[in-house]
Amino acid sequence: MQEINNISDYETIINGNKPILLDFYADWCGSCQTLLPIIEGLAAKHETNFVIAKVNIDKNSELVQNFAVRNIPALFFIENGEIKERLVGLQTKSVLDQKIYTFLK
Predict the structure, then answer these.
(1) Which of 4, 22, 32, 64 is catalytic?
(2) CATH no. for residue 32?
(3) Does the pLDDT at position 105 exceed 80?
(4) Which of 59, 71, 85, 91 has its CA 20 to 30 A from that of 29?
(5) H/E run at residue 10
């Protein structure tokens, strides 16, 4: 799973040809830490056809502002440079896996 450390990292993945799932998180967020192994598992499962990346909100204030993140975890599904869906809060693996498959069709 990729980690986005700055705007340049974000621009690199956004200019690719795969759909993207961005996970905005913080190290101090309990729900984020609960979600992390789920996200990592999905990243490994879908690494050939989907970009899954995490964004630490404490280190990327510009991206936090650009995406208007108010609560975490915040998950953004992006396709062709456009935000297609946003989920806030703890999500199950099955919900996220199903969302990923809708973008792969």
Answers:
(1) 32
(2) 3.40.30.10
(3) no
(4) 85
(5) helix 7-14
